[in-house]
Amino acid sequence: MESGLVLQNLVSPPVLFFFLGMLAVLVGSDLEIPAPLPKLFSLYLLLAIGFKGGLELQHSGLGGQVTLTITAAVLMSMLVPLTSFLILRSRLDSYNAAAVAAAYGSISAVTFITAESFLTVLQVQFDGFMVAALALMESPAIIVGLLLVKLAVPAEPNSGRSIGWPSLLREAFLNGSVFLLMGSLVIGFLVAAFSPAGLEKMDPFINKLFYGALSFFLLDMGIVSAQRLHDLRRAGPFLIGFAVGAPLVHAAVGLVVARALSLPQGDALLFMVLCASASYIAVPAAMRMTVPQANPSLYISTALGVTFPFNIVVGLPLYMAMVQRWIPAG
């Protein structure tokens, strides 16, 4: 059963378009995406993810366990980049270490959706408010990543930069990607609460176009990743080892938190997946705009080329076995 589910998710359109983009570069095709389009689709994906998170948050309400779970998720999205940066900085410069750390503090929506399908097949119940946790984990990781860059770069030789806290915090919190994501979350919440007609009008744009835009975005990401694969080869075993080891450690921490919060098995698995996955949509979109010094092949290739398939093929069955071992069935 699990092997069939894994195969079904591996052949999803966004993933296949990612590999199509890589293949285009590897076989020497002249396929290229005009520069303004990837940025446009990046902005669309941030808007859609934030808006849908706001809808789910309004539907679920802000009861005790909802608030505690979302708070824990946000704290994890801040803690993971910090610990990851300390490890990555031993082998990478500050720009790349912060970008990779931010990717692992954030989440993968496709992995999350795959985990929901996995639970559905297993007939394990889960709550809709976990989507809000997904949306809220994007921004803190990006903010921490930008703060790490601002704090660490002045310490590098010949940087010639100094820390200006007001401008630093302004850039971190008013960064275009973060601002759009959080603003969309608030708008989604308000529309769901007060404007059902507006919600209906937004539905085709937010939902029906999402996977098409995601596929196009990942096509471009595949091209970018393949063009810079030689950089990942140069980084070598260290980054590949990090891309496999980090999700295992983060999932284990997520399991401890889920058990402390008394989450049911389905929500516990989704919480672990949020902690263990890495972003290849929001964070790459943000980093490409705000930290151009970072090499996209490092944070995209590790998150999408190693961690994503690892979580799909090995992670989900492993994490579920851990949940069944340590979380009592409801």
Fold and architecture overview:
The chain is mainly alpha-helical and 330 residues long. It is built from 17 helices and no strands. The longest helix has 31 residues, at 296-326. The two termini are 23 Å apart. The model has no long low-confidence stretch (mean pLDDT 82).
Keywords for this entry:
330 residues, 0% strand
Which class do the helix and strand fractions yield?
mainly alpha
Distance, first to last CA: 23 Å
Taking all Cα atoms into account, the compactness measure Rg is 19 Å
The 3D shape can be described as: globular
Uncertain segments: none
Q: Tell me about the largest β-sheet.
A: none
The overall strand count is 0
Provide the residue-averaged pLDDT: 82
**Approximately how much helix is present in the residues?**
over 70%
Tell me the fraction of residues in β-strands, as a range: under 5%
Give the SSE string: HHHHHHHHHHHHHHHHH
Number of DSSP helices? 17
